[in-house]
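Hi R.,

Here's the chain you asked about this morning:
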Amino acid sequence: MPDKRERHLLISGFGGQGIVLAGDILGKAATLYDHKHATMTQNYGPEARGGACSSQVIISGEEVLFPCVEEPEILVCMSQEAYTKNIKSLRPDGTFIWDTDLVHTRKTDMHFKTFHIPATRMAEELGNKMMANIVMLGFLSAIEPVVHAEAIRKAVMDSVPASTKDNNIRAFNTGREYGTSITKGLVKPEPGKHQD
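And here is the predicted structure, written out as tokens:
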């Protein structure tokens, strides 16, 4: 029996991190390679690069009638501002994923299912911090498999310049392997940073 429920995701950060591209890849993976329905809407702050930015993605086994994510089931934060602005919108039973080095959380917000990854640092170690969004997609694919990993890999290949395909697939695999290790209990994640 196919899963027909809608999955609501909000990917947030700042302009220049590839937040919209990440949402686009996820939607493309769902529709082109996973035979699901998806919508993606984006939101920018007043200045594009460095300003607040988000990508709202809805994935469903059936047609999506309303494209806006008001209460995400999955919230991905890749900047402090994104966390501060969006954490209160996450559903009580939701999943919260963040970039360890860029977001300092409050202990009071840790009642969600929480996962974190040093995505930007991992991308830098792979040679380009601009791939942090792809590392994060790999991590997301292991933590919350809303779309099959192979579908996301194919969508990544479709969405990045030819000269960067190998590096982006390496970034995706790095994030996925880290997420898989955490879900299997093989790796203890480094502690997140708290504001309190």
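One quick note: The first strand starts at residue 7 and ends at 14.

Cheers,
M.
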